[in-house]
TrEMBL record:
GO biological processes: guanosine tetraphosphate metabolic process; nucleobase-containing small molecule interconversion; response to starvation
Coiled-coil zones: none
Protein name per UniProt: GTP pyrophosphokinase rsh
SMART domains in UniProt: HDc, RelA_SpoT
Entry function: In eubacteria ppGpp (guanosine 3'-diphosphate 5'-diphosphate) is a mediator of the stringent response that coordinates a variety of cellular activities in response to changes in nutritional abundance.
UniProt cross-references to NCBIfam families, sorted A to Z: spoT_relA
Enzyme category, top tier: transferase
Catalysis performed (reactions): GTP + ATP = guanosine 3'-diphosphate 5'-triphosphate + AMP
Pfam families per the UniProt record, alphabetical: ACT_4, HD_4, RelA_AH_RIS, RelA_SpoT, TGS
Domain TGS: 382-443
Amino acid sequence: MLRQYELVERVLEYDPDADEALLNRAYVYTVQKHGSQKRASGDPYFSHPVEVAGLMTDLQLDQETIMTALLHDTVEDTLATIDDIEANFGPEVARLVDGVTKLSKIEAMPENERAAENLRKFLLAMSEDIRVLLVKLGDRLHNMRTLHFIKKEEKRQRIARETMDIYAPLAERVGMYEYMREMQLLAFEQLEPEAYRTITGRLEQIRMQDGGQVDAIALAIKQALAETGLNVEVSGREKHPYSIWKKMAERHVSFEQVTDIMAFRVITESEADCYAAMGVLHTVWQFIPGRFKDYISTPKNNGYRSLHTSLIYENSMRVEVQIRTREMHQRNEFGLAAHWAYKQGDKPDGAVGWLRDLIEIVDASHDAEELLEHTRLAIYQDRIFAFTPKGALFQLPKGSTPVDFAFAVHTDLGAQTVGAKINGRHMPLRTPLGNGDVVEIIKGSSAAPQLSWLGFVVTGKARAAIRRAVRLKERAEVAEIGKKLFDEIATRVPAKIGKKAIREAVKRLEMEDEEAFMYAIGAAKLEDREVMEALVPGCTSEMEQGEDWARQERAISIRGLTAGVGFKLAECCHPVPGDRIVGLRKAGEGVEVHAIDCFELASGIDADWLDLSWGKASKGAIGKLRATLYDRPGALAEMAGIFGQNMANIRALELSQTEHPFGVYEIDLEVQDLAHLTRILSALRASDAVAQAERI
């Protein structure tokens, strides 16, 4: 553990103007506050914040960050308060400490909710000052170094998983690769102990048997470059054990089949020398097509710059080579921490694109599970590059679609997306984007995010925005159903209901506003009796409990509502516009629409029944048919031709049974209404290829 004078001397070495007395006071304060507390290792607890402060001095960060590292656990684990920190060390340090501190009031929450709430607070604080993230990463790295002292395996696994899912990717996104690699290695050891032991054991064998092969290859690379006048430094190493395991899992190969286990780094004097060195290496050794990446001309979001290539060395050995300048190397290893110069009084603004996306996700996420899921997606590591038609570059996770791209450009553009062109060609919105694709988004003024998009989008920002939009639309449509039900209820109270009565009812029921009141009615969260009593207190006193007084006088129209949002068409009977329909309403769920003759309605379902009508403009639904075709060439094509002639779209087709000479098909067919479906059935029955056709 660093002693007090050693820590202060470290800071003064790179920042002679630092306040020595204030640093000493912070050290003494944390020692006194943590007192006799012990860590799982048996060490004094204050050794942890002191070691985190030491990590911050390695990054040469300002004195406020060093003091924050020293004090970051005092508010959470001792009797100290944020006000105490501010009184002793000033408002800036207090703000940073508060950003890193976990909220004590959420300790009683379930584990996932507590983790999500901590993450929410941390991300918001990080958006104001990136130093919060740097201290948090140092805190997590030191905790991982001592994780093996925790006795409970379940707790070790939870911390390791959180590190792998959240903190290692965050370190990568700010370019702190040294932190990322060590966190991944320590988490990998806990999460996959057998794989960790196997891979590290094999690497040790290679080290003992290679006879200095790594050094020999590094020397050969340096000599080849020196012969052309390039002054470089070359170093070599085996690849990171977690990186090897990940490659084995992704490619479904054994350790022996991973060919590029060795990696080499070439440090040059200038950017031009990087490209010259690459040219020499590609001339001397064969490079592997598809494995060259230029992160100098197109840096990663975190500022990472380097050339990556893979070569075939002697005996068909594959080696990976990274080429960069010394300045790039410093920035690449320590990222944003190396970039911001606090000594000159510069303050980081935190205005990084991906960080703004994370804050949007915090705002849009509905619950703990969503926040954790979306955040993991937002900091996912494997990226692709895609361009707007005007040449603006966007980095996205692998597997991203035009919808992900649209939301990355702007949330409003994502919400208005109706189509896309990829490299000038119209393509489906679910098409995965490739590196270098030019994406043009086609938007519509009346468009809205679709629930079905959640089936293919991959970015956390897109998923959060889509879910939020769908929730708002669902709330509005359920509230619309609630208004129609309210009109029915209002006719059954002994008074004329106006705006004043509604406002009073909202207050009595402790609702936020009138829309929340209507939503509660539509979602069956309020019984009719409760609504009537809130409107006219005492009006239900003479009614017997359970009395059947809630019959509708007229059907409620579902025109203007969206299937799957305000209501759901039942899959048991597949109603289409024109069918006589009823709705089943369960508390907290949407209205499920059934055809009046549906067998499910006779099964004694415990739900409110609503008399519904389609409305004059209702069009479009999925009808389900069963067609028995003669088993002969061209029969299926003839049936498909009938659908095409009648302007009906096949959504699904399945051969459910074969019994010579017949084949039975079940078809999901997009039709306009009952009349449209009836015409199609008539056409099928008239066809020589069809033995029987019926609706199911």
